[in-house]
Amino acid sequence: MKLDYISIMLIIILCFEKLYSMELVPFNKRGEVCILEDCAPLYKEPDQNSEEILKKNILDFVFLISKTNITNRRGQVEEWYYVDSGDSGQTDSKNGSSLTIKGWMLGRYLFGKDHLKPLTNVKEMFIIAGYPDYADYYRVYSDGTFLSRDIEGGNTGQKGKLYGYTNIIAVKFNNALIFYAFFYYEEGGDLKSRFANEVIVLTNKSDFPPWAQADVPPVLEGDFAHLIGDNVNIRAKPTTNSAMLTRLKKGARVKVLEISEEVFRVGDREGLWVYVETDEKDKQGKPIRGWMVDIYLKPEE
After folding, report:
1. Of 137, 257, 261, 271, which sees the most CB atoms within 10 A?
2. What is the pLDDT, as a whole number, of residue 19?
3. Does the structure show a pLDDT above 90 at 2?
4. Helix-strand-coil split of the chain, %, nearest 5
5. In whole angstroms, what is the distance from residue 74 CA to residue 76 CA?
6. Alpha-carbon span 122 to 120, nearest angstrom
């Protein structure tokens, strides 16, 4: 069935309406949402012709207070949010405390938790975010997962997934309730951070540190994965001294239920103990669950 021009335009309009009418869900119970663009204006009233109080920068946080829909002079419905900017304003004459500046902001300048969606097809890279006293390192895989360790690979670090919305990239550690860090792409394509002094992106794998050379992405809680090792022991506890529940062949499928902080070293390789559910059954007919090391796993595509 062929679609005429009007039908195609209606579909595009509906898609854009769905995108921009998405409910603004805060990142936490305090009502924090994030600024999407630089120099986002805060107004005294929900009207672009009213007094402009201040401007907020990209990736600044503000606190939601209330919302209203206003029909502008062109007959378009605009979403306005009354927010607490977090910036100090005048002093309360009663108790001397500092009052924060509150005002109205258009919804198109804001994004919340539900705007960010998992990235599943990205370019492999190594991100260095440098701060005054330390740096964060992220080895990013093509499926959108990342591994974060120190530059020498001396600690196990963390793993998680990247989320995105328009020009925003969010780093979320596995099973974390909040997004740990935000980056944004400038018009020229450079990756930036509001808080890091410098962000360096390496795309040539030969420039990655040794621990980041591995091609196998990390497994995350809730993932299904396949064994890339053969005759792998599944144990009752995260230790080699624990009882063996079963032994799995290469290619076996498991579900990752929990990732511990217990580290296991095999030669020059280092991994974490993970609690998995196997396809094998115990005497009661229930799936066998036990511990193994994540270096023998590859996430299911």
Report:
1. 137
2. 43
3. no
4. 10, 50, 40
5. 6
6. 6
Identify the pLDDT of residue 224.
93
- The H helix count followed by the E strand count for the chain is 1, 23
- Report how far Cα 162 is from the mean position of its chain's Cα atoms: 4
Query: Which single residue is written with the structure tokens 């022991």?
Result: 233
Place of tokens 């299911």: 300
Distances 58 to 23, 41, 154, 162 between C-alpha atoms, Å: 20, 11, 34, 19
Q: What is the mean pLDDT of residues 283-290?
A: 94
Nearest partner of 84 among 96, 68, 101, 72, judged by Cα: 101
SS3 of residue 11 by DSSP: helix
pLDDT over threshold 60, residue 285: yes
β 269-281/253-266 pair status = antiparallel
Residue at 215: amino acid letter: D
Token output for 292? 């193994």
Q: What is the pLDDT of residue 214?
A: 83
How does DSSP assign 172-186, residue by residue?
Answer: EETT-SS--EEEEE-
d(CA 293, CA 149): 18
pLDDT classification of 88: cutoffs 50, 70, 90: confident
pLDDT at 100 over 90: yes
Q: CA 179, CA 174: separation in Å to the nearest integer?
A: 10
Give the residue from 293, 263, 262, 264 showing the smallest Cα distance to 276.
293
234 contacts: CB under 8 Å, gap ≥ 6? 244, 245, 246, 247, 248, 276, 278, 288, 290, 291, 292
Q: Which two tokens stand for residue 139?
A: 């080895």
DSSP letter at 233 equals E
Q: Which residue has the tokens 């854009």?
A: 16
